[in-house]
Design goal:
- This protein is globular.
- By secondary structure, it is mainly β.
- Strands 1, 2, 3, 6, 7, 8 and 11 form a seven-stranded antiparallel β-sheet that branches. The protein has a two-stranded antiparallel sheet with strand order 4-10. Strands 5-9 form a two-stranded antiparallel sheet.
- 0% of the residues lie in helices and 47% in strands.
- The model has no long low-confidence stretch (mean pLDDT 93).
- β6 and β7 form a beta hairpin.
């Protein structure tokens, strides 16, 4: 074991079950996991079966990077099963939904 790993500056871990959960819309919950000093952040998003974002989800000021952790995610055009990675460019949009329920890991490198 190397306990000095955990002593490194800003080396942290958090369980998505420990993070404060915020319900964005009915059946859609956001778990903030990490925030950087320049605005970058990472979140876990849980969507219950049959839920949908109410309208377009526009990405500004920067891109969104999405990893489907569990279930099947739909962006309004296609279904993406667990294990899929999506890069959503700045200024683009999609309409997140799921028929089965899903968990997503979201990363916003520019805030």
């Amino acid at each position: 074991m190397h306990p000095e790993i955990l002593a490194q500056k800003d080396y942290t871990s958090v369980s998505d079950h420990e993070a404060p959960v915020r319900e964005l819309f009915p059946g859609i919950r956001l778990n903030p996991l990490s925030r950087g000093p320049a605005g970058a952040h990472a979140d876990a998003l849980e969507m219950e079966a049959g839920t949908s974002w109410p309208g377009r989800d526009v990405h500004e000021p920067g891109p969104e990077k999405v990893c489907v952790v569990a279930g099947i995610f739909n962006d309004g055009a296609c279904d993406y099963p667990a294990g899929t990675f999506l890069r959503v460019p700045a200024g683009s949009w999609h309409v997140p939904s799921t028929t089965t329920g899903c968990t997503l890991f979201l990363y916003y490198p520019e805030g």
